[in-house]
Amino acid sequence: MRTNTTSYSIALLFIGIVYMAGAYAIVNSPEQSIAKSALGNVPKDVPQWLNNGNEKFLGLYDNEMTGRPHGVAILLPPLGAHPDWPGVMHQLRTTLPRYGWSTLSIQLPVLDSKSTIKDYLGTEKDIANRINAAISFMKNKGYRNIAIIGKGFGAAAGAGYLAKNPDAEVHSFIGISMSGYRDAGGWLYSPNSIMGLALPILDIYGSHDHYHVLNSADDRADAARQASLNSSRKFKSNAFQRSATAESAQTRRSGYIAFRRMKITGADNQFSGAEKKLIKRVIGWLKQHAGGIAESWGIQPLPL
Fold first, then answer.
1. Into which CATH architecture does domain 59-296 fall?
2. CB-based burial, 164-185: b 16+ in 10 Å, e otherwise
């Protein structure tokens, strides 16, 4: 009887894994739970199951709605959040397509509740593999103008990825409420990563944001200035060379990479009541700093 019970339990486990759309093969219950909660609120054609080389993970793809595409934004959610997390992530995912930007919002690793932020240092390789899979997915759809937009932990992860992968064919980066996990250090301390970037960067946050976002804001700006001295004068980055900023007369004189620090007065970490203002700033920045790439490929920019 004990053998039968064991066999029955194993069978139920197998059925449960297969039931996850025959596509979700991650045996990570915290991540499964988070990802599943995103599926009930999106159209059936939006979920995409991407493969990072070892396992499958959830992505939500929304095609641009204008017929005049600018490019694609790969969205990286906050710590412990799913790709359609209420607030900023949902607004980005559903609004950018109205302005010519397709979006692919991907699930980042979720550890168990006992994990500390330092434990997430070990997720760097997995995150890189997921972003690589997302880039490949979009390139297979014909996109070449790729931006990364991260929120909180997702912003730190995006900066960390770009610092280690300068030739990943990502042309611009936006960090929203970019977390500065000083205690964790390494790639999770965003100024460390920004120091190695050579592409247009928007650092946007609220005046009432989390302390670790506000306390590292000056360090992020200083890191970007140092990055401009280290990288943009030499035009080493292929992505930077193709950007509108690299082609400007000011850049040719000063060599300074496009770094914009933008604080939204009165906004908290969730941008409660300020979502529209945030999206407007993001779209405007993309038009200025990523639109030049689209134009060089013969894609007409969509007026705001």
1. 3-Layer(aba) Sandwich (3.40)
2. eebebebbbbbbbbbbbbeebe
